[in-house]
Amino acid sequence: MSLNTDPKRCPLCGDGNACGLASPSRSAECWCFSKPANPDALKRLPADLCNQACLCPRCLQRLHDETTPDAP
């Protein structure tokens, strides 16, 4: 596990992840609750990054696109 993981930053790219739970001043749920990740995509993350911080929307979409087969 990385001791420098910032819950407000995407663990893959380091950009802000807009996590609703990482900011105590916000009372809203995180945006990712309405955008569930593909379990196969999440398996591709390094183990030390799992459950440390939310991915940013761009990285979540990229993982989804890389894991989802193209339609015929």
Automatic annotation (TrEMBL):
The record lists the organism as Azotobacter beijerinckii
| Record-given protein name | Cysteine-rich CWC
Q: Which InterPro entries match?
A: Cys_rich_CWC
